[in-house]
Amino acid sequence: MQLPLLAALSAHGAPALAAACERPNRLRFSIIPRGDVRKEIADLQPLLDQLRAALGIPVEIYAAPSYGAVVEALLSGAVQLARLGPASYVSARRADPMLTPFANYANKASRFQPAGAFYHSLLIVRAGSAIMDVGALRGKRLALVDPESTSGALIPRHVFAKQVGRPLEAYFSQVGYSGSHTQSINRVLAGQIDAAFVGSQNLATEMASNPARERQIRVVWRSGPIPTDPFVFRGQLCDDLQEKIRGAFFNRGGPQSADVLDKLNVARFVPVSDRDYRIVQEIY
């Protein structure tokens, strides 16, 4: 079930503030909009089915319009479980130290994405362009993803900008936000912009659905490794619910099953904690 309005989420089944712990009569799950949200939700259905079976309560999806909307929903209690980006997780955790990361995933190896529980921020251009390196991008048009995107904004602004010795707005003639990794990739390929920062895992997923497009992309810059997107739950949830959520991810026959992993295009789920995101905390 998709609930487009945050107000609607808060109005139905929100836990009482006076409760010792939160025990919602339905679990609400959300994801940061990395690409085609409808496709991502469809791909998540096997995972949601596993959660419903483990918890014994309905599980609903909140299709958020932005990274910040997912964080807002988590902090307000309108959503109890979410997949965040590393930077949006760090931001949310500072506002609510009880927010608990418990899983991320290991990516499959591909042309743009090495195997492992990490990814990279990539600066991409059209392969047919004359742009062969970072120096050729001075004065060109750039797309970022979302202000809360790790690979699509945080790393570019804090790591790439430091390497080139000036803010992005001073290096490029135009800097804007596309709203998703998919939109950034499409705008590069359409010639609407000259370059974009995107996540290697997002680029790999997009290219897997249309392998012919791989030859149309050139990578001119790559960041160091970044831990993959964490799945987090509200620490205010009752302990037994927290354990059931963990169990749904890691018990045999749960999301580690081939159906779930294949739908999400990942190799396996990996247990994580807050310390796994220190590298992001240090630059954000």
TrEMBL record:
SUPFAM superfamilies referenced in this protein's UniProt entry, alphabetically: Periplasmic binding protein-like II
Protein name per its UniProtKB record: Phosphate/phosphite/phosphonate ABC transporter substrate-binding protein
GO cellular component terms, A-Z: ATP-binding cassette (ABC) transporter complex
Domain of life: Bacteria
Swiss-Prot/TrEMBL GO biological process terms: transmembrane transport
Record keywords: Signal
Membership in a protein family: Belongs to the phosphate/phosphite/phosphonate binding protein family.
InterPro entries linked: PhnD
A Pfam cross-reference name: Phosphonate-bd
